[in-house]
Specification:
The chain is α/β, with parallel strands linked by helices. It is built from eleven helices and 16 strands.
Length: 349
């Protein structure tokens, strides 16, 4: 388990200190004169460093702490679940008055911790905990999928786009059949239907977020049925989907901005763009509110396009490949989603 402490001076534009250690889940304080009301801690049920979900949140913690003039403590507890409760308890027993963690895997542990530490306030993102001292953050993954579907539908019904021949078929691969992933998939189907109602959407679940072999087989089957664009929301399984797209010479749409920074698989450009959901903005907002003494514990807030948390990444490959007319349409629909114009379609009401 790795722990790092960060000290953020009020008004500073950079982190004053960064210490990485190989300890068991506690860390030394950084900064001076810090008290519990002037610090925030985050327990990561995993590891950071890949530029993705947890890294975005850590950046948000740092930015929010800078606004508040608070110190921060980040604990990377690793992926072994037996380490999570001790790490969370260590932080709750420490000086930080506000403790942040994430994902549905932490719901039970945080529910228990919130009861044991009623004087602490907690926040969890990408999950909901019903407790009077916990603020919950969720994301509009249906909006993420919707934007991906809009792009896929527009591309599939266009002419002159490389690798798109107009088969009228697109696909979406989900990691597991769970509500979050179903939000992605339902949104994707709605997005395609909103701009290209005659395009067929193939969908399948890999049953795992860590099975690229299965992901590759599923995507290859879709491509064999004519899919020319495949959206994936399957964690580590995404890699296999991208490999199948490279082999089949079709486009893939990812779900994380970091996937667009290295869009090639075996020398073939594959990840056209990503419909991404960022945790940074929501976590930064939570920390800033905690610093101001206004964190809305006991409540849940959902973040989406309107909050700047969801968008289509304008990667180099995207701008080079997708015609300006389609990009303009995607931008216009993104603005409409932010304005709530597609709410009934997304919620099914």
């Amino acid at each position: 388990m790795r722990t790092r402490s960060l000290s953020v001076a009020f008004g500073a534009t950079s982190v004053a200190a960064l210490v990485l250690t190989g300890c068991s889940g506690t860390s030394s304080d950084s900064g001076s004169g810090s008290t519990g009301s002037e610090s925030v801690a985050m327990m990561v049920p995993g590891t950071a460093g890949d530029g993705g979900f947890f890294d975005q949140a850590i950046t948000g913690v740092e930015a929010g702490a800078e606004q508040a003039g608070w110190t921060t403590q980040i604990v990377e507890a690793g992926y072994e679940p037996t380490r999570w409760q001790p790490a969370l308890d260590d932080l709750a027993n420490g000086e930080s008055a506000t403790i942040i963690t994430s994902t549905f895997a932490m719901v039970d542990l945080l529910t228990q911790a919130a009861t044991r530490f009623p004087d602490k306030q907690f926040a969890i993102f990408d999950a909901v905990v019903d407790a009077p001292n916990v603020y919950s953050i969720t994301y509009r993954y249906d909006e993420t999928g919707f934007l991906a579907g809009v792009l896929a539908g527009l591309l599939e019904t266009s002419s002159g786009v490389d690798r798109v021949t107009g088969t009228g078929v697109v696909g979406v691969v989900g990691g597991q059949d769970i509500p979050t992933i179903n939000d992605y998939i339902d949104g994707f189907e709605a997005g395609v239907a909103s701009v290209a109602p005659d395009v067929k959407v193939l969908k399948a679940y890999a049953g795992s977020f860590a099975d690229p072999v299965k992901g590759k087989a599923i995507a290859a089957d879709m491509i064999g049925q004519g899919a020319e664009i495949v959206f994936t929301a399957s964690g580590g399984t995404d890699t296999g989907v991208f490999e199948a797209a490279a082999d089949g010479e079709v486009w893939a749409i990812g779900n994380a901005e970091v996937q667009t920074t290295s869009p090639e698989i075996n020398g073939t450009p594959v990840v056209l763009t990503a419909a991404t959901t960022s945790t940074r903005e929501s976590v930064q907002d939570a920390v800033a509110q905690a610093g101001a003494g206004t964190l809305p514990v006991g409540e849940t807030r959902s973040f989406g396009v309107a909050d700047g948390s969801i968008w289509i990444v304008e990667s180099d490959l995207y701008t080079e490949t997708v015609p300006q007319e389609i990009r303009d349409q995607v931008d216009a629909i993104t603005e409409a989603v932010a304005a709530g114009e597609y709410e009934s379609l997304l919620t099914g009401e």
